Amino acid sequence: MSRLALLALLLALVLPAAPAPAAVSPDEILDDPVLEARARALGRQLRCLVCQNQSIDDSDADLAKDIRRIVRERLVAGDSDEEILAYLTARYGDFILLRPPVKPATWALWAGPFVVLALGAVGVALFLRRRRGREETETALAPEEEARLARLLGSDSPSS
Amino acid sequence: MATVTGEPAAPRRSRLVYLVPTLVFLAVAAALGWGLTRDASVLPSALIGKPAPDFRLPPIPGRDERGFSRADLGGRPVLVNVWASWCVPCRAEHPVITRLAEKEGVIVHGINYKDATEDALAFLGGLGDPFTRIGQDRDGRVAIDWGVYGIPETFVVDAEGVIRYKHVGPMTPRDVEEKILPLIRELEREARGE
After folding, report:
1. pLDDT score for A156
2. If residue B135 lies in a helix (H) or strand (E), which one and from where to where?
3. Other CB atoms within 10 Å distance of the CB of residue B143
4. Which of B149, B153, B166, B168 to mutate to test binding with chain A, by most A CBs within 10 Å of its CB?
5. Mind telling me how many Å the CA of B149 is from chain A's nearest CA?
6. Burial profile A108-128: b = 16 or more Cβ within 10 angstroms, e = fewer
7. What is the ipTM of this complex?
């Protein structure tokens, strides 16, 4: 009984940690666990061109399966990860990479959010500074203004 | 005195206050409008301007004995159409290809993608066979070398064997009139050295 409870506890601990099931079917998996791990890592970086927002590792599309197979074949043949990515981008362009490479054509893409953030910060700083300036001028009256105010108030209400 | 020097500056600044956000809005709206109206399923080919990949495909058994390979490209501009009998848009496109081949005298080669021999033969037998060469790509490997991601896809290959254009999806008569045929004619002139 206590052993069963222990088993249940262990399962409860282990199951949530299990990785999300990939579309990789058992017959695709390589015997060498190191190569398979590299294949999985590559598969997660590669876009399925049919479904576009899934990686080839997650997609059941035929083309994703074909590309998974090519990745594994080339790994077994001894290609480096970079060589495999180069092989695929030569055919499908950078679009097959889920993470766009940093190059002149993508500088705007990568820097854009930071530029917008910086512009926003400048805008907020200007706004705050101008408001503070206005508050100061509004609170501090020049001596002649005070005198005029006193005169006006004095003429309106002789009691003061 | 202060009001006199301040006066010309004030209207200019207030105009800027309206102008800058309007320009920013228009720029963002234009970018989003472009993003929303373009067809995201059509991808630019990485192979435009590059020589066609090296390949050698066997024939569809029962059609011919030659098949289709890289050596068949070059000499004059051609179309390379990737098709399958199970692909419904390919069926819709077939009369357009037939017209190009028979009426316009354009050479069209075919890559028969992941198809069963009998199905491919039945397709050609039933709808006609406008192709000059056909190679059978059973595992889709050659199609991947061509950067194919969804058939039908059609490539325009010039007389030097360089891929000049790619059309994704079925070609309509309008695509042929406006893009494919003018490009083929231009490449033919180019090949003749005009």
Report:
1. 58
2. strand B134-137
3. 24
4. B149
5. 6
6. eeeeeeeeeeeeeeeeeeeee
7. 0.76
Rg (CA), chain B: 25
3-state secondary structure of B125: helix
Contacts of A95 in chain B (CB under 8 A): 43-44
Interfacial residues of A (vs B; Cβ cutoff 8 Å): 49-50, 52, 62-63, 66-67, 70, 89-95
3-state secondary structure of B154: strand
pLDDT, one tens digit per residue, over A23-63 is 788 888 898 999 999 999 999 999 998 887 899 999 989 99
Nearest residue, CB atoms, A92 vs list B41, B114, B147: B147
Q: In the numeric block, which tokens belong to residue B124?
A: 């050609």
3-state SS, residue A1: coil
What's this model's pTM, rounded to 2 decimal places?
Answer: 0.74
A74: CB partners within 8 A, 6+ apart: A83, A84, A87
Bond before A104 cis per omega within 30 degrees: no
Structure tokens at B22: 């309007």
Local structure of A141: helix, strand or coil: coil
Amino acid making up residue B47: L
Provide, as residue numbers in chain A, all residues whose Cβ is less than 8 Å from the Cβ of B45: 93
Tokens describing residue B27: 């720029």
User: CA nearest A68: which of A52, A45, A94?
Assistant: A45
Nearest to B72 by CA among B59, B83, B90, B85: B59
Each as own residue / partner, the long-range contacts of residues A125-130 (CB below 8 Å, 24 or more positions apart, any chain) are: none
Check residue B42 and give left, alpha or beta (phi > 0: left; psi -120 to 50: alpha): beta
When the pLDDT of each residue in chain A is averaged and rounded to a whole number, the result is 85
Output the pLDDT for position A140: 73
